[in-house]
Amino acid sequence: MDTIDTFCTERLTAVRLLPEDFGDLCRMHQDPKVMATLSGVRSDEETRRFLQISLEHWDGRGFGLWMFRETATGQFVGRAGLREVHVGGNDEVELAYGLMSEFWGQGLATEIARACLKIAFEQLDMTHVVTFTLTTNRASQRVMEKAGFTYEREIVHAGLPHVLYRITGKAAVTGACSRG
Question: Is 175 inside any structural domain?
Fold first, then answer.
């Protein structure tokens, strides 16, 4: 299977996660505001493990996380993508996303989510995708709903209460340009 190494949205360029992204990941993973809903602040060693697992996911499955940058400036916005996870008692493909706090509230998470879903359904032929967040993370839940996800149920993940959302079939997603 061909991998989708790069693509763009209206305002962002996505590039497959690479070893040289370690510095940006560390900056993100050490920001308490950003990581408050993403399992907490991570040390350099924990970020190294996260990166290694993410790279192995790409190698084994042909998809994974992308690093997103503003197309106009090249500034690091966040990371997002599709990954296999065991959540809520099932093996699922998750839409995962996290943005640097200076980019919150600009509609970028929704733009990213829609682009990733377009790839999931139109290029990877997935039948459904899940996403989940803490029950208290209303901003992320709004992103999920805007991207077309439907609330399914509450779950416990990493020992904390979460809400699980699901989208099935070829979603009506827009905003992604063709892969590079």
Answer: no
